[in-house]
Design goal:
Length: about 400
């Protein structure tokens, strides 16, 4: 059996696991990164058709570790956000109160993953084991031991980044609070005729939110955008099955006023929707980061940004432990991480769940409350700016 020692074991190389592995290596720590999927030509990373709305707060974390410039090459700026209730009737306009500043950036997930995997494969501090099946894990007072076939890996801390169906969470029987929505989301990336002018749109329909996000121009003639449409699961399944022409005509009907004629579809995929949060984000020598700790409705495009705040907080605690000469797997790290991260995640879990509920209601009272709320937020700059700062991950600004 081959034995390997490392500072950290990271399980899962999604958008969170890849970043945390890269950041830790930049700080001179050693990492074994384990992924269950095979990294090949048609690899799992490139199959992700989603885009991510990167907030200002996450951009600052990426800048701190010197990777923003590269991500920014493929990023489209969001200069304004227009939110509509039902059919373009009640509306709120959001823009950044700071001069010449933007609200965020849209980047394709596959581009972020490709960039990081390339860097990680060349990195001597990271041992990236893909196509891996975890056989056993044992936790003792002194270390974590993880067994793959023919290999044993020893480390101080196990960082679970294995997504919302976390194997590590199930293996260690960590309790989970979960809310399954009867909704699914379809993501459709498409070419269209009218410029998006760097505006993101969110249209709250009674069946679920429809978001339209500006993508970087990849065609000389046409503009591109990414649609995230949440709706009843059966409807999304049907949308996924119908032919391209029919899908375009349905999307044209909804989006023509903002995108002009839709020309063709670049890629699409569907996602089941649920909200969940672990009862705790850590246990002995284990921390849960990103979707393995919490997964929220994509209504506000905040799941990954929330995960990046976990990453930032965990790295700061590890650095503090290092400076105090403490074990990276000690309670100082695991308990402080849980304390620092639980409230933020729980609040967003509740806010996104309630938003989805309120916008799904169509009775007279709910419609009136929404109408008043929209008018207040649109006209009151102070409230409007507070929401903008919250969404950008900038806290305590106003
Ligand atoms: C439709 C949609 C749109 C979204 N848009 C946005 C947005 O605009 N902005 C935003 O901030 N967030 C957004 N999100 C949320 C965001 O995509 C997720 O929060 C984020 O991708 C979570 O990343 P992760 O690395 O934690 O998990 P995942 O991406 O799920 O990665 C988990 C990884 O672990 C691996 N794995 C699983 N089990 C094992 C195992 N046993 N052993 C080894 N490896 C394993 C998986 O193969 C995978 O590679 C959106 C979500 C959806 C569904």
């Amino acid at each position: 059996m081959i034995e390997k020692k490392s500072d950290f074991i990271i399980v899962g190389s999604g958008l969170i696991g890849l970043f945390i592995a890269y950041f830790l290596s930049k700080l001179d720590f050693t990492v074994v990164l384990i992924e269950k999927n095979k990294l090949s030509q048609s690899n799992y990373a490139l199959k992700d058709v989603r885009t991510t709305a990167i907030s200002e707060g996450s951009k600052q974390i990426l800048s701190k570790f010197g990777i923003w410039t590269e991500i920014n090459k493929q990023a489209e700026k969001i200069k304004s956000i227009k939110v509509f209730d039902r059919k373009y009737v009640n509306k709120i306009d959001f823009s950044n109160p700071r001069k010449n500043s933007v609200l965020g950036y849209i980047v394709q997930n596959k581009y972020i993953k490709k960039t990081l995997i390339k860097k990680i494969k060349k990195n001597k501090k990271i041992d990236f084991i893909h196509n891996a099946k975890i056989k056993d894990i044992s936790i003792s007072d002194s270390c974590v031991e993880l067994y793959l076939s023919g290999r044993k890996i020893k480390a101080s801390l196990l960082i679970a980044c294995d997504g919302k169906k976390s194997f590590i969470r199930e293996y260690f029987k960590m309790q989970l609070f979960q809310k399954k929505y009867k909704q699914k989301a379809i993501v459709v990336n498409l070419f269209h005729c009218v410029d998006h002018y760097n505006t993101a749109y969110e249209i709250f329909l009674n069946t679920g939110p429809l978001a339209c996000l500006p993508m970087k121009k990849i065609d000389k003639k046409y503009f591109s955008s990414s649609i995230v449409w949440s709706h009843k699961a059966d409807f999304i399944k049907t949308l996924d099955k119908i032919n391209e022409k029919f899908l375009i005509s349905i999307l044209n009907e909804k989006l023509n006023p903002i995108l002009g004629k839709i020309k063709s579809i670049i890629s699409k995929n569907t996602f089941p929707l649920s909200a969940q949060i672990n009862s705790n984000f850590s246990s002995k020598r284990i921390v849960y980061v990103g979707d393995s700790a919490h997964s929220i409705h994509p209504i506000a495009g905040q799941g990954w940004n929330l995960g990046m705040r976990d990453v930032d907080s965990l790295i700061n605690i590890i650095l503090k432990a290092n400076s105090l000469g403490l074990d990276y797997g000690s309670e100082f790290v695991t308990d402080n991480y849980n304390k620092q991260r639980y409230f933020d995640a729980y609040s967003l879990y509740q806010v996104t769940d309630k938003l989805n509920y309120i916008f799904g209601k169509d009775d007279f009272l709910s419609s009136k409350i929404r109408q008043l709320g929209f008018s207040l937020i649109d006209k009151n700059k102070k409230i409007n700016n507070k929401i903008v700062n919250y969404a950008m991950g900038i806290r305590n600004v106003l």
